[in-house]
Amino acid sequence: MSLPLLALVITVDSLRLCVTDATTGAPLLGATTRIDSAAVSTQSSPMTTACGMIHRPAAARTSAPSRQAPPHDLVVQRVGYRPQRVAWPTTARAERETLTVALMPVGARDTRAVGLAPITVRGEAPAIARMTAERSAADARRLGATTTHDLVAQLPYTNLRSARGETNLSLRASRREQVVVTLDGLPLNDPATGVADLSDLPLAALGSATVTLGADPLGAGNGASGGVLALTAGAPRVVSLGVGAFGQRQAELALRQSMGALLVNSALMHRTATNDFSVASSVEPAAPTTRRVNNDETITAATVGLMASRWQLTGLLSHTTRGMVGPLNVHAYDADRSVVNRALLRAQAVLDGITVQGGLRTMGLSYRDPARPEWNSAATSQAADLDVRGTAPWHRETPTRGALDLTWRAGVGADALRGSGAIAQDRARAFVATNAAWHRRQTRLESGVRFDAITQAGVRPSLSFALDQQWTPGFSSSARVTQAFRAPTLYDLYGASPQRLTITPLRAERVRGDLELASQWRRQTALGRWQVDAALVARETHNAIVWFPGNFGWSPANVGAEQLRGVEARASHAHRWSTVSAWVTRYDAMLRTDALRIPTPYVPRLAAGGEWIAQQRTAVIRLGARYLGDRPYTAGPRDAAYRLPAVTLISAALSHALPLGALRRHLGVFDDARITWALDNATNVAWQSVRGFPAPGRSWSVRITLQDPSSP
Amino acid sequence: MALVFSLLHSARWRAVGSVAAAMVLAACGTDVAVDPPASPPKGIVVLDGYIQPGLTLLADTGKASSRVALGDPTTFDASGFTMANDTVLAVSSRGAGDLLYIADLRTGTTRKIQMPVGSNPGNARLLKGTGGQSLIGVALRDSGSVSLVSVAGTATATSTRITNAGICPTDVFQYDNATWVVDANANCRTTYTLRGDVRLIRIPNTGTTRDTIILTGARGSGASAIVQGGVAYIAAGGDANFASFPYAVLTSGSITMVDLAAKRVVRQRMMPAGSYGAGARWGANNFLYVSLYEDLSNFTDRIILLNPADLSIITTATTPWMTLTAANGDPMTCGNGVADALSRLHCLVSGAGSATSLVVFNAAGKEIRRVAAGQGGVDLALR
Predict the structure, then answer these.
(1) CA–CA min distance B335, chain A (Å)
(2) CA distance to A284, A546, B12, B339, per residue, from A556 (Å)
(3) CA dist list (Å): A287 to A282, A291, A329, B299
């Protein structure tokens, strides 16, 4: 009788802890742990990785729990997240397993990711599922990624577009400006264009990328009609050198150091490429092929992050120069150059349970035409954000009434744009939001509302409602309906300015309803881990803002209603050393205005992808495939003459650990060294993601990476 | 309005236009022949210039239409076209690849021919070819030259160049064994700022003596020509300051009438003060139809009807532009208009999403037909 009791109170002295974001599953670094007991309370330094070994302090060991004293509590906390308290494992078995703690962002929607690694321990009840996918930067690098573009391209459901080296994202059949991209919660979208460019974000500075499909009015607010790409900062220690086709050269360095109670991150990236690949020409009497010229780019970017237990500071500086290559067969821009400078500063602190977050962004674009300097131009856009968020537990869970949590958030902001041609646009923003989450047994219900007030866009309420039912331990269903809006961007306002044209004032684009009916099925068998996610989706957007030629140049206008109907699905199977996954989306996105029926440009009706990953002790192989159905490329009616043909792209990567031998001890923290070979567009398909701007054919890259061995 | 109506339905007045040159030059004014009974057009061709570049072909009645695709928006930016013998010519500027488009309306086929890189084509016109070849003149604005492109069947096109053809040649035509170039006289390589009045340059096919006719008062970087017999009507869009708000008209558009044989300006009509632009089309009823913006504040499309004999404005007493009313009686405006032989005005109206409608008005200016005509319509012609 006494033996079982003894087993219950045997407390392990160390364990492996992994900390993740409960909404996305993304790994979180910088968490601190505290061990509370009646006798002691000890706090650790911020974790330098998302996963790491933690040890009970000696003081805690001396106050070992007994039948009379409760076990120690392990409190995991990170700035921006609700602290979670879990019991310190009391079985020896725990020493061989990973304790995973999922932290819920403060004030964020209470949702959980689908399709992520199994979670051992959750601090809270299961949250409402979303169609989402995540990958860490370290994993992506091992699987062949060399840039942030590559990282996002490895994620399912993503539709990336690039014309002159920039990287823009479409999710759930949206236009580019209908996706919000955040870095540690701070939006990266340019207030001038509404579009976020990922191309200058160093992969070495990132911890992970998570795409979440569907409108997110409460968390991301303005512009998040199609979905959100959430990037987290904080990569493992990395030194990476790579070369590739078309003059690609890249060096990355990321360092992380714990300095007392402070965790310091820094990353530096420099990349150059000529991108002078050959493409076919379709004009007579030109040569059958022509080489892209003035398509080069040079990017230098640096990030720095400081994190303490109660505050966090992140900074990003980037400088990008590019040749402004023209569309295929257009040589008027063969000497034109652009310079983009970006600076970003984000601060976050926890004050008495309330999280305060502020951010400053500025982006400058300079365009130079040596042949016609009269056309030189420049523009600078800036944005400032400040928001506070907190949570107020309504009451504790009881068997009969369940539990109700209330979170709230409020913020203010301002955007500005100055540019050549007397462009001057300013606006102020403010919002307040609240979200109530109730759960009882296997049922969760959430409802929230957010009010945004934006200059020239008025006050915009957005509602959100979600229901989740866990039918069995491996099967759940959810229903979600939200509203969202997208205020005109500063360029929209400029283009529609009554100073230039007497037209109807531009109104905010309104998502009247974004509906998602989803189910998730997971099963662990002797044959491996199986997982299927599927969703039916629908979206109704009123007053869509689209640029059309007007009576004097192009200008934005609110045109008709945009309707989306679609299906999203993903399946995966993991067994021992092999993981195979596939996804598919089928969308019908149509803008209806008077007699016109206009499919949303660049949205394929059918898209699919898949990957197979095989991992042995020292080697990782990834084979990836992506299919994009034919895509209309104009804001005109569906017409076979104006669409990009369907394309299937094959990629492959091999990553192999290098035998370091005696060199290992000289490398210090970088004792995981590997070489990665990658082949993109292996079948050398001629294709374009943006009409007129051919993508490279078959291309290769090779990179040597020294990496922190404790990275997740 | 009644005056306009009666004028447009007068056989005598319709005949006036067709022999305008003779009347003006000879000033005889007698023995005017009566035209055969006017007939409706064989069809209407609308150029969709922006979103899905192509030609929308319509019949004189009904709603049916067909399309001829021209290219994608990155390599097509023409805002106008010329048509002869069911062959449509259009050009793309340097910003869209310096291309010549040739569309055969009978077969629905299109050819895309590379012009010299950076030459910035301004307009193309079918000239008289020889030996079974079609000859196309292309004004190359940034190289100050004219390209003469020979096309025979599906064979590879060949071309020759006429150099030193002005500062910024924007149009070209043939008359009396000579090539005539409309020179906008503007800095087309950079900002299109005007350097002086529009000029007409005569380049003989043989010999080296060139003649330059300065069209005093005619200004505009988008000058073009309409040739009827021995008379050329040179339309110049005017000059404006778009560098700051509010936009300011510096010089209104103009139509200049030139006696080609005498190589002299006969008459000039300035468009109303404050207006901008002057897109001229020759109606099948032998009148000139000029499209312009009423002002640079509201950019209201207007059409002015000119008597080609003396360039007088044919209008009601209150406004210089044609008064047009919708089917429900509401006043309406219209851009890019031209009349058929029945004096029915065909013009383009843009709606939500740049949906283009072809609207037809009777000679009294009352809407009698409205039909969808593609998207992003910028020019039209009657077959």
Answers:
(1) 9
(2) 35, 5, 48, 32
(3) 9, 10, 11, 43
**Cβ-defined contact of B95 to A330 (cutoff 8 Å):** yes
Which residues 6+ apart lie within 8 Å of B253 measured at CB?
A: B220, B235, B236, B237, B238, B270, B271, B275, B276, B277, B278, B290, B292
**From CA A483, how far away is CA A199, in angstroms rounded?**
30
Selection from B130, B122, B132, B215 nearest residue B177 by Cα? B130
Q: Is the peptide bond before B246 cis (omega within 30 degrees of 0)?
A: yes
Phi-psi region of A402 (alpha: psi -120 to 50; beta: other; left: phi over 0): left
- Token pair listed for A304: 């720095």
ipTM of the complex: 0.85
Overall size of chain A counted in residues: 712
The answer on pLDDT for B176 being more than 70 is yes
CA distances from A605 to A39, A221, A585, B97 (A): 62, 27, 8, 31
Asked if A329 and B75 come within 8 Å (Cβ–Cβ), the reply is yes
Rounded CA-CA distance A89/A705 in Å is: 36
What pLDDT, on the 0 to 100 scale, is given for residue A303?
94
Taking only residues 490 to 509 of chain A, the set having a beta carbon closer than 8 angstroms to any beta carbon of chain B reads 499-502
Tokens standing for residue B198: 């529009």
A287 lies within 8 A of chain B by CB: no
Chain B closest-CA separation from residue A545 CA (Å): 10
Q: Do A636 and B376 touch (CB under 8 A)?
A: yes
Verify whether the Cβ–Cβ distance B245 to A500 is below 8 Å: yes
Which of B67, B68, B74, B247 has the highest number of chain A CBs within 10 A, making it the mutation to test binding with A?
Answer: B74
Q: Cα–Cα distance between B282 and B227 in angstroms, integer?
A: 9
Size of interface A-B (CB pairs under 8 A): 134
Residue type (1 letter), A345:
L
Chain B residue numbers with beta carbons less than 8 Å from the beta carbon of A282 are 112
Give, in order, the Cα–Cα distances in Å from B70 to each of A122, B43, B52, B57. Answer: 60, 19, 8, 13
C-alpha distances out from residue A559 to A21, A260, A546, A591, Å? 39, 57, 7, 8
Of A460, A509, A557, the closest CA to residue A226 belongs to: A509
Are B72 and A642 a contacting pair at CB < 8 A? Answer: yes
Contact A284 B246 (CB under 8 A): no
Task: Assess A329–B contact: CB distance below 8 Å, yes or no.
Answer: yes
* Cβ pair B335:A642 closer than 8 A: no
The pLDDT tens digits for B46-65 are 999 989 999 999 999 999 99
3-state secondary structure of B313: strand
What is the dihedral sign for C-alpha A653, A616, A573, A130?
A: negative
Q: Kindly identify which residue of chain A lies nearest to residue B348, measuring between CA atoms.
A: A551
Contact check, Cβ <8 Å, B297/A502:
yes
Contact (CB<8Å) B98/A331: yes
The yes-or-no verdict on residue A411 having pLDDT over 60 is: yes
Q: B227-263, pLDDT tens digit by residue?
A: 999 999 999 999 999 877 788 999 999 999 999 999 9
Inter-residue contact A104 to A389 (CB < 8 Å)? no
What are the distances in angstroms from CA A529 to CA A154, A613, A647? Answer: 21, 14, 31
CA atoms in the 13 A half-sphere facing the CB of A514:
25
Nearest-angstrom CA–CA distance, A491 and A556 = 9
Report d(CA B189, CA A249) in Å as an integer: 37
3-class secondary-structure state, position A357: strand
Q: How far is CA A458 from CA A455, A486, A506, in A?
A: 6, 12, 11
Yes or no: say if A208 and A398 are a contact pair by the CB < 8 Å rule.
no
Chain A hits for B245, CB-CB cut-off 8 Å, are 422, 499-500
pLDDT tens digits, residue range B109-118? Answer: 999 999 999 9
